[in-house]
Write a structure and sequence with these properties.
7% of the residues lie in helices and 44% in strands. The protein is mostly beta strands and 175 residues long. The chain has one domain (2-174): Jelly Rolls (Sandwich), CATH 2.60.120. The strands form 3 sheets. Strands 1-4-11-7-8 form a 5-stranded antiparallel sheet, with no helix packed on it. Strand 2 and strand 3 (54-60) form a beta hairpin. The longest helix has 13 residues, at 2-14. The chain starts with a helix and ends with a strand.
Length: 175
């Protein structure tokens, strides 16, 4: 429950950074207060350098057989219409890279939440030691009911420690 409360504060603090013309036009289609981490135990920590002052630290102890062996995801809880422009935005930084690496590449996607986990869109992002807001945009190819998609970040491409701030998925409407 504490993690959900902290995450909700992070989302509220991040609202002014969203790309919509006015805050009342934002349509969040996930609950940023409920991220799910698979394959690792996250730790909530104070970090005044990230929007909202709290971060989720995820330590990947060893490279996985698949990049998704350790991942964080958020369920898209609202329906999406064909042609809607979507924005997956998240704060991230690399605390410790494999072998002292200063940067890491994180695959991410908005995808189906069940097999075959087909991607709607995604793009790898490079993270470094400084906090950065990453944005990945795409378009829905068809209508999707609520709870059939998620946004995910794959972390097991290396042994590393990654800090994440708010994870937000916003429906920007049709083209």
């Amino acid at each position: 429950m504490r993690l959900r409360t902290i995450a909700a504060v992070l989302v509220l603090a991040a609202l002014p950074l969203a790309p919509a013309p006015a805050q009342d036009e934002l349509v969040f289609i996930n609950n940023p207060a409920e991220p799910y981490v698979n394959g690792a135990r996250p730790k909530l920590r104070d970090d005044p350098a990230v929007q909202g002052g709290k971060a989720l630290r995820i330590q990947v102890k060893r490279k996985g057989a698949n990049p998704w062996d350790v991942s964080v995801q958020t369920t898209i809880i609202k329906p999406i219409k064909a042609g809607d422009q979507l924005l997956f935005a998240f704060w991230a930084r690399l605390e410790e890279g494999e072998g002292g690496a200063a940067t890491a590449t994180l695959p991410n996607a908005v995808q189906q939440s069940v097999a075959p986990w087909t991607w709607l869109f995604g793009s790898p992002v490079e993270i470094g030691p400084e906090w950065k807001l990453h944005e990945v945009r795409g378009k829905a190819d068809k209508d999707y009911p609520a709870n059939t998609l998620n946004a995910t970040i794959h972390l097991a491409s290396a042994a590393q420690t990654v800090d994440l701030g708010p994870l937000m998925v916003i429906d920007l409407g049709p083209e």
